[in-house]
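Input record (one chain):
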Amino acid sequence: MQIFDAAATRAPLAFERLVPALHAAFAATDITVPPRHVHQLRAGTDQGTVLIMPAWSEAGFLGIKTVNIFAGNGARGLPGLHASYLLYDAHTGVPLALMDGDEITARRTAAASALGASFLAREDARRLLVLGTGRVARLLPAALKSVRPGIEQVTVWNHRAESAKGLAQEWRAQGLDALATADLEAAVRSADIVSCATLATAALVQGSWLASGSHLDLVGSFSPQMREADPACFANGARTFVDTDEALKKAGDLLDAIAAGTLREGDVQATLAQLCRGERRGRIHASEHTVFKAVGNALEDLAAATLVWQAASAAPA
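The corresponding structure, as predicted from the sequence alone:
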């Protein structure tokens, strides 16, 4: 069994390769994704969530990801999420590789955001607002610029202002026109794309703030207890899309909107699979408001892990 550390896992997962790989995976019909296992745990006063996410393909790969989420880790200066990924030969069950699950999770989540935006964000989108400063949030500008290269300005907001300032500085060092803001409402009102990658349990984005023609990207929360947008974000003609149908059962944002009457299950326009297969349309008009809600899917992990494995297999000895 080969072991891929963070750097070796990251190297083959440039968004220019990963986003098309996700597109192909969602369009495919030969990948099996059972429901994820979700477990709540308590250790003393600390609480966490454990996810177990399997998937396999007729191409011959089986992957199982374990994810540990501890929302209180931010106060300790630690990431809120830690993951490991095991890749097997689906024909024999032989272990092939242990990969850095944090890299796979962060990069495939940002890539799914970009894949959604490729169908839903305006082609002339220039101003991106990122909520959050964690692993996924840090990757969102690069991921989204891979499908919307016209993005010129990136603003970041976080409930810890110093974290936002630090991330904006990092992005500027990478050549981005980036700035931090403490005024979330004003930043939302001026953004073409609002991308949320937080572990929030109370709504951050208000529907009344969203600009005409904007795209709201919600890729942080993944459980009924978590939410990043209020019910009004789904009202007034907004067109809502999801990564998979599981989002309607797991996303606090959607469950709140359904309970408030601003969204019905039948209002959801399409899943990523339907978009990638050309079965449904994405954005239709420049002035419409689109929402993409993702809770993550093991298909994405398998697609990313397969890229890592294939790159290593193709490398000269």
